[in-house]
Amino acid sequence: MASVLGIGQPRVDGPLKVSGRATYTSDHHFPGMLYGVPVCSTIAHGEIQAIDTRTAEKMPGVRAIFHRANIGKLFRAATNQSFGADMVRVDEKRAPLEDDTIRYYGQYVALAVAGTFEQAVAAADAVKVEYREGKPNVDDQLAPDIKEKVESQRGDAAKAFTAAEIQVDETYDLPPETHNPIELHASVAVWDGSSFTLYETTQGVMNHRNALAEMLGVPRESVRVISKFLGSGFGGKLWPWTQSALAAAAARQLGKPVKVVVSRQMMFQSVGHRPRVRQRIRLGATRDGKLTSLAQDYVNHTSILDDYKENCGEATPYMYSVPNLKITSALARRHVGSPTAMRGPGAVPGLWATESAMDELALKLGMDPVQLRLANEPQIDEGLKIPFSSRHLKECLATGAEKFGWSRRDPRVGSMKRDGLTLGWGMAACSWIAGRFACTANVELRDDGTARVSSATQDIGTGTYTILAQLAAEKLGLAIGKVEVVLGDSQLTPGPLSGGSMVTAAAVPAVLEAASKATKALLELATRAPGSKLAGRKASELQYTGGRVHAKDEPAASGIAYAELLRAGNLRMVSGHGSSPGTAGSAKPKLSSHSFGAHFVEVTWQPEIARLRVSRVVTVIDAGRILNPLAGRNQIEGAVVMGIGMSLFEETSYDPRNGAPINSNLADYIVAANADVPALEVHFVEFPDLHLNELGARGIGEIGLAGTAAAIANAVHHATGVRVRALPIRIEDLL
Ligand code: MOS
Asked: 598 C-alpha vs ligand 1 centroid, how far in Å?
């Protein structure tokens, strides 16, 4: 049978989704279900003085107005550093409604529960909250409150910078960005008197179960978390947010299922964002373009309660060869909701700054920016002082330059024209971690000739159902259509968080091992099943090929179809279990594992009408072996679209008077839409990273966003001569 890996296999869950039959969290309905609507704080800093629920309680359909005094006990989760099945992480560490202190605009202060959504909205609006208001601090200057910490250091960056022949010393700003998956966060909680079933928009059913059990004060086995389909998450759904505990607590209090759907406005307030980041980058180089010093000092805002660090130095220590390097971080506390991971956390903001600075250095050197990167290609990861498992940035640069036609670039600003438009050509390199979270999987071979593969991971829209079907089908020699994939349920065998672009790499060894064990169980069965023509043979003399068990010295066709074998023995199934440990968080790695890539961007600029467009993007990615080029390309394209939004549009604005995110809707917070996006070209260089798993496949969900903003800003400079160092790039910047 032809291999089903490396082919453009369409989504196995595609028909369910396009026909509207895929059940997302908020699609769940239960008899007697009630609707909960949070009451959100209208100040960002202060204290609740009084909550008056009398009017709201008397409104039609209202079942309860919960607040601190009547919600029942909710606990904080004892978070840990595990990335395995025992992981416990939350975003906001405070239990909801824990005290009367307001720390950000939109903090939940009560929950109105009613028979219909409209009744609950009306009741939530009718709750009167009296505050003692303090002046919030949401300023964008990022004066640090938590002092500088050294993240990485080698040599003497300051001394080498001072001595450098060529210097770049610039500061790059990134505004807060809000995750805007089209699916809103939602929780549907069902309490049966002893256990919770929580339908959740989560990128991690295992972690969500563990964390919610602790917050609700019940054993883990009393919580089941289900997340069958996600309308994406982008990191905003990695860890539980407080609406989940509120829905569960309300369901327990009322003995009825309760659904809480976070509104688009609340999405900007209470379920995370990428924080504001300011980065000072200092590059020192020799006249011939060899880096001698790299310093990156960054500050990001965080919330009053939580210390969220946007790890901007993530990709810096290993990206280029440089003997002297220093990276520092600092935090500025602001009255904002807790920031969290957003697609490519750390590396994406970091590479926006460092890849912009590399372009500025290339200009000062009069050197081609591709050549500058090639001239500083490291032999090893100079940060960790270990070899790379597989690094093919050079191939990405070469392929990208060739596909884009980079050799035709005239480096003079504004010199390239087409159809009356000024062209800008820019490029940037990118990188993202490659690793595995711990993963287990079960594979069952069933008496109807089908197989089932299951794991308590989830498909956040990236194609995990399809990849697991491909892996099992490949190993079992079955058609994709014969494989059922079951994910998104914490009762399944433990599986990984959908984060860090790590699910595919983690699933490969676990699923292949599980499938292999299931076929071994069949061989045993064949030696003793009633009526088996292989009865009496040793299992070691038998082999499984394409759904049949046969003697090793005879062709597969001579053997027995496994369905027949199972039926003969009155067995519904044989099963196999596979597991693979995680690499993520390992203290002393022997190899540095990352994906790499390069973006080549063309913008068009019409100074007469101040019109800027991204007109062409060629992206080349080294993410190991690509198991599904259709899903893979889709991930890179989606990330580049997000990169266009990041470069040109996205910014969450806070009202300095009350700390409210004021553009909290999809009309005022602009994300890139079809009209903003040209045809995108994506290529994979496909060097299998066999240290990561036997197929050499890495994850691919995040890397496409890394570097995109720098490539666009670099192209804008080439077109206009204006260096924009604060995103998003606005027309006003270019006039
Ligand atoms: Mo990703 S930010 O790890 O969902």
From this structure: 21
